[in-house]
Amino acid sequence: MGNSFRNQPAPALYGENKTPVTEDILEVGLLVAFAMIAFSFILIIPGIRGWERLFATIRVFVALWIGAVILVSSFGYGWYTDTVRVQTQYKAFTTEEINADVGLHVGLRGVNITLKGEPLDPNGDLAEETINYNEQFYWANPWAQGRRGFGIFAGRFAREFRAAQFRGMPYPILWVAEYFTLDGEQIRWGRKFRQAGWYAHIYLWLAFAIYLLDILIFIFNVRIGIHFFMLLGVIMICSIFSYGVIILNSPPLVLPWSEADCEPDASEDEWCTLIMKPTFGWSWYLVLFTGLAVFFTGVILFFIDYFIPRWTAPIFHHSIVEADEEFIPGEDEELEGGVKGLDYGSGRSGSTKRTRGLTKYRQTQRRPRSTVKGGRGGSQRLKDEIALEEIKTTETEQA
Questions:
Q1: What does DSSP assign to residue 38?
Q2: Which of helix, strand or coil describes residue 9?
Q3: DSSP string covering 73-138, please?
Q4: CA 156 to CA 144: how far, in whole Å?
Q5: Residue 128: pLDDT band with limits 50, 70, 90
Q6: How far apart are CA 64 and CA 38, in angstroms?
Q7: What average pLDDT score do residues 241-267 get?
């Protein structure tokens, strides 16, 4: 049994087993990372008491959602997509055709092209052929356009396209990729998508930096954190706006194909032509809706914190008792000398008053100190209590 799969006397040899790429490893890794953080937080939720359990859950999951959207959209291939069912020639050195689903998925850093189908003739040369491809072509790192052609000084996309030709990639994949290698007159789709991806990914990295900074700011100051939260939404909106403007500023990208399972009718001038028209995909809309939600949520929090700050304090784990105490001069303050807000008594320079002002946050939480002791028979004043009128009279006499 030990020599069953060996070619004597060499080690065991296994045949080549090529499989298509079904998922983007980087996207899956990012999602798993955020899912692990979320799962770890779920484990500690029972240890949080009261309303803080709800507020902490909202804070953590909203923060994880925003971070996941920024990173997954930045590295994803769902910004400009379309998939069509076509009938086309398969590859070189064969005349057989196939029915296949051809997909175009444009990201910020390159293009992903998929091909999955079956031969028209089940008994032909392609009967045992597995038609399932997933190819990526990059224009990032470096982001330079490069010279025309396919030489060593050409752009990265053009060089990868020429390498795919030498490897014998199926014709549908090469036809789609070729549209992004053209760079002349008005046919500059590769240049436009590369520029759009450059500006969008710069905005998203800026948004991610502000996202991390905002998490720290909310720990110390709610109002400034809200300002940065609104800024985060604006930058995310700017990323999809810059991408859309650059893409739509050029002639639309359309790819003609022959429709699958279609019989042309020459008498009615129907030739089974199918046009691939890519549109904005899930990544673009995900960033758009998340950016709008972040911005308007920040606006709502800003007004709530401005008028009723005691409502926002528990949400961000700020104690209501910890007051924002400031010495704010009163409207009736008389300042003829001395330092503003401090009482130095009467002197040559005149008189000043020390007024202890409270912010709106403190005013909403201030409660008078009780000096009354209650009981069954009613209430009675404390023995050592001094009437406020007496204090006022004493201060007037001293002045």
A1: H
A2: coil
A3: HHH-S-SEEEEEEEEEE-STT---EEEEEEEEEE-SSEEEEEEEEEES-TTSTTTT--EEEEEEEE
A4: 8
A5: confident
A6: 7
A7: 83
Q: Which residue has the higher pLDDT, 329 or 102?
A: 102
Nearest partner of 83 among 131, 130, 115, 119, judged by Cα: 115
Alpha-carbon distance of 304 to 309, in angstroms, equals 6
Sequential DSSP letters for 152-221: TTB-HHHHHHHHHHHHT--HHHHHHHHTTT--BTTB-HHHHHHHHHHHHHHHHHHHHHHHHHHHHHHHH-
C-alpha 155/C-alpha 109 separation (Å) is: 13
Q: What is the pTM of this model?
A: 0.74
Read off the pLDDT of residues 351-394 as tens digits, 9 standing for 90 and up.
444 444 444 444 444 444 444 444 444 444 444 544 545 545 55
Reduce the DSSP state of residue 275 to 3 states and report it: strand
Q: For residue 143, what pLDDT band results from cuts at 50, 70 and 90?
A: confident
Structure tokens at 335: 């300042």
Q: Does residue 72 surpass a pLDDT of 60?
A: yes
Name which of 109, 169, 111, 172 is nearest 141 in CA terms.
109
> What order do you get walking across the sheet with 131-138 strand by strand?
131-138, 110-119, 97-106, 80-89, 279-280
Q: What is the mean pLDDT of the chain?
A: 80
CB 239 within 8 A of CB 203: yes
Strands 110-119 and 97-106: antiparallel
